[in-house]
C-alpha cells in the first residue's frame, strides 16, 4: 500500500458515500480487478476484510515494545538496587519487588506508546514535513476513493467499473 | 503561511485504507494504556503523602481517594471549559446535553465516592485510637481552618448530590455553576490536606497559620496564565473536535442511518448487514 515508487499512473473514482464504496470494493473483488488503494476521510468499518487487508501487526509491535519497557525497568532497578548502589530503605530487602511495580508499569506504558507511535509513522511513511501526493483534496473531507494502477487495470475497464458502481467522478493522476 | 503550517502538521496523511487500519490499532492500544495510567498516576501522587509519617497524610485510603477525586475534579474542570467553548464555538450539535448529563452522572458518582472517603478517614482516625491521627482530623474539621474543611465537604460532597435529579443534570446553567463549585471544593481539599496538616504538627512551638508569600501567589496565578495560554491557542488554531471520528459516526446513509432520508437511500440492492424489513 505504501508504494514508494514515485510515478504510478492511477485512475481513480470518487464516491459520495461509504456504503457505495463498500459495494464498489466488493464488486471489484468479484471482477478480479486489482485495487491500488482505497482512500477515505475516516476509517470505514468493514472495509478491511472486503479489501483483503491483513490485520495490522502494529499491536504485536506494541506488545514487544511494552515487554522491552517492562524488562528495562525491572532489570534496571534490580541491577541498581542490588549491585550498583544498594541502599536500605526502612529495613526492607535490597530487592523490594513491590516498590518496583509503579516504575515498571510506567516504563512499559512509555515504551509501548512511543514505540508504537514512531513505528506507526515510519511504516506509513508519514512524519513532520512529509508531503505525499494525494489524489484529491476532497478525500479528506467527504469523498471516498478507489484507485487502480493503470498498468494493472486498463482505463476502459476501470471506466466501466466506476460507471457501473456509481462513482460520482473519475479522474487520472500520476502519483 | 497558514497552509504551510497545516501542511507540515498533517504529516503527509493520505487517508489510505491501510493507514486507517493501523491508526485504529494504534488508538485502541493507546487508549488501553492511558486508562490504567490514570489510576497509576493518581495513586502515586497520593503515595507522596501516604508514605510520609505525618498524621492525616499517612493513610492507606489515599490512593483510591485521590483517583476518585481526580476523576471528579477532572470532569468538573472539563465541564467548566467545555460549556463555554461549546457555546462560543457553536458546538451544540456535537457536544450534546446527553454528553453533559453523562458527565454529571460521573461527577455524582465520584463526588459520592470522595464523600465516603472523607467519612472513612474520620472513622479510621477515631477507630485507630492513635491520638495524633485523632488530633489531625479534629483539627481539620474544628481547628482554625474549619472553614476550609466545611467548604470542602459542602462543595465536594453536598453539591454534586443535586445531580440525582435528571432535569438538573440536563440544566446547563446549573451544571456550569456546580462545576465551578466542584473546582473550588477540590481546591479546598488540597488546602485541607496540606495547609491544615502542616499548620499543626507534632511540636506546638512550631505551630503557625499559613499565609501565602507573593511567590506562591505568583505561581498560582502563573499556572492559570500558562494553562489558559495553551488552551486558548489550542481552541484558536486546532480542530477542537476530532473531525474524522465525528464523521465516522455521523452516518449519511446505510443500515445504521436513522435520519430524514433513511428510506430514500435504500434503492441499492446491497447484500450485507441489512435487516429483513429494510427494503421497501
Determine the strand fraction of chain B and express it as a percent band. Answer: under 5%
Give the fraction of residues assigned to helices of chain B: 55-70%
How many separate domains of chain B? 3
Can you write the helix and strand succession of chain A as a string? EHEHHHEHE
Radius of gyration of chain A: 25 Å
Biggest protein-protein contact in the assembly: A-B, 53 and 42 residues
Order of helices and strands of chain B: HHHHHHHHHH
Secondary structure category of chain B: mainly alpha
Through-space gap between termini of chain B: 52 Å
| Strand segment count of chain B | 0
Quick structural summary:
Chain A has 175 residues and is of the alpha+beta class. Chain A has helices spanning 18-30, 47-51, 58-84, 97-124, 155-165, and strands at residues 9-15, 35-39, 144-149, 169-174. Chain A has two domains: 9-56 and 133-174, no CATH class; 58-124, no CATH class.
Task: Characterise the protein shown here.
The complex is a heterodimer of chains A (175) and B (280). By secondary structure, chain A is α+β, with helices and mostly antiparallel strands. Chain A folds into two domains: 9-56 and 133-174, no CATH class; 58-124, no CATH class. Helix content of chain A is 48%, strand content 14%. Chain A is built from five helices and four strands. Chain A has helices spanning 18-30, 47-51, 58-84, 97-124, 155-165, and strands at 9-15, 35-39, 144-149, 169-174. A four-stranded antiparallel β-sheet of chain A has the order 2-3-1-4, with helices on one face. In chain A, helix 3 packs antiparallel against helix 4 (97-124). Chain B is mostly helical and 280 residues long. Chain B folds into three domains: 35-205; 212-249; 250-280, no CATH class. Chain B has ten helices and no strands. Chain B has helices at 2-9, 17-50, 62-88, 97-128, 131-142, 146-158, 166-169, 172-199, 214-237, 243-249. In chain B, helix 3 (62-88) packs antiparallel against helix 8 (172-199) and helix 4 packs across helix 6 (146-158). The model of chain B is unreliable at 261-280 (pLDDT under 50). The chains are: A alpha+beta (175), B mainly alpha (280). Chains A and B meet through helix 1, strand 2, helix 2, helix 3 and helix 4 of A and helix 1, helix 2 and helix 10 of B.
